[in-house]
Amino acid sequence: MAEMDAIKKQLNADDLMSLPDNGKRYELIEGELVEMSPTSNEHGFIELNVAYLIRTYLKQNPTGRAGVGEVGFRTRKDDKTVRAADAYFISYERLPKGSSTQGFSDIAPEVVIEVISPSDRTGDIADKTQEWLDFGVLMVWNIYPRQKSIHIFQPDQKPLVLFEDDRVDGGKILPDFSMKVSELFED
């Protein structure tokens, strides 16, 4: 067992990238491979809704690009930690139009969206949210499907909790972006 622990600690971003596609999802935290359970239908549905709303906004306001699907970022700008975002927005200022990154990026998006699963633990959610902010993310949206709410975190600000009848705006990051929280949960 000690040998397995030693091997786990030696993993890096390249090792994670080269894992076979076996339907499993992983993050890499300080060299340790952490398996994530598959997402539920509801989770995927909400990811699609938020990505659609942001993509629609970007068609009218081409200031950057959005991504979805557990996209990996080297949040500590080393090869030992790769965190996965359910969805994100990155401006052309941070990643110029037409350019891309190979593998996992160490360029922080401005917005990261996480859909919180019932199996996610409160402490792990808080740690990952803080890691996104420490990485340089300017706004983290944690979406809670069961409560039909969204918790918004920004550096040096108190968290904002919004419910179905409330509106989310993009602030200075996504000017003029606005959606009703309930839109995340619509069929």
Polypeptide structure, described:
With 187 residues, this protein is α+β, with helices and mostly antiparallel strands. Helices cover 25% and strands 32% of the residues. The protein contains four helices and ten strands, in the order ααββαβββαβββββ. It has helices spanning 2-9, 13-17, 41-60, 122-135; strands at residues 25-29, 32-36, 64-73, 83-91, 111-115, 139-144, 149-153, 160-163, 167-170, 174-180. The strands form three sheets. The protein has a six-stranded mixed beta sheet with strand order 3-4-5-6-7-8, with helices on both faces. Strands 1-2 form a two-stranded antiparallel ribbon. Strands 9-10 form a two-stranded antiparallel ribbon. A hairpin with a 3-residue loop joins strand 9 (167-170) and strand 10. It starts with a helix and ends in a 7-residue tail after the last strand. 26% of the residues are buried.
CATH topology: tt1808, chain A
Q: Spans with pLDDT under 50 lasting ≥5 residues? A: none
Task: Please count the beta strands (DSSP E, at least 2 residues each).
Answer: 10
Main beta sheet: 6 strands, mixed
Give the amount of beta strand, in percent.
25-35%
Distance between the termini: 47 Å
Class from secondary-structure proportions: alpha+beta
Find the CATH superfamily: tt1808, chain A
H-E string: HHEEHEEEHEEEEE
> Order of strands side by side in the largest beta sheet?
3-4-5-6-7-8
**Total count of helical runs of at least 4 residues:** 4
Mean pLDDT: 89
Radius of gyration: 17 Å
The backbone outline, from C-alpha atoms, is globular
How helix-rich are the residues, as a percent range?
Answer: 25-40%
What's the CATH class label? Answer: Alpha Beta
CATH architecture: Alpha-Beta Complex
Number of structural domains: 1
